[in-house]
Amino acid sequence: MTKPDAQSGISEATAHARLAGGVKTVVYRALRSLVCSTCARPIEPETLFTRCALPGSTLLIMPQCIECVPFEIERENRARSALVRSLLGVPPPPAREIAAKQTGEHPRDEAGDEGEAAKVRREIERRLGPALRRTRRTAR
User: Fold this and answer.
1) Residue 62 phi/psi, 5° resolution?
2) Where are the extended beta strands (E) located within 20-59?
């Protein structure tokens, strides 16, 4: 067994979940082997688990496996922000038409549409162009 890197953690917070009683909690993903503080079963790396506090403390430091503390991961239903949507994909047709009206461009039909990579490149250059030009001038 190899010794874990001192900079790597023991676990990382992954999601929110509801316990059997309806209480919300944070779910962690094990980055290395741990032992459940309740039943002493091993918690293997990449396994999800929760944490509990020591008696008389509020710090959640004691790992507990899903067999000891059953939980159900909550799915987030909130909508993505407009910025995230614009960065992850092409806006839906109504937004594309609104953007075309604001910029004075005419929306193209899908057959005459240019490649996605060219669109993304042009949009990045449009947004970052002034900053890149200033950086290049000061670097000389």
Assistant:
1) -95, 115
2) 24-30, 34-35, 42-43, 48-53
Tell me which DSSP letter residue 132 carries. H
> 3-class DSSP state for residue 7?
coil
User: Among residues 76, 64, 79, 77, which one has the least CA distance to residue 19?
Assistant: 64
CA–CA distance, 41 with 68 (Å, rounded to integer): 10
Do 49 and 65 touch, CB atoms closer than 8 A? yes
Which structure tokens are listed for 135?
């950086």
- Segment 16-72, tens digit of pLDDT: 899 988 889 999 999 999 999 999 999 999 999 999 988 888 888 899 999 999 999
Rounded to the nearest 10 degrees, how much is the dihedral formed by the CA atoms of 94, 96, 97, 101?
140
Q: Show the tokens assigned to 120.
A: 């993304």
Q: Per the structure block, which two tokens stand in for 117?
A: 């990579």
DSSP-based three-state secondary structure for 51 = strand
pLDDT at 1: 46
DSSP sequence for 87-120: HHSPPPHHHHHHHHHHHTPPPPPGGGPPPHHHHH
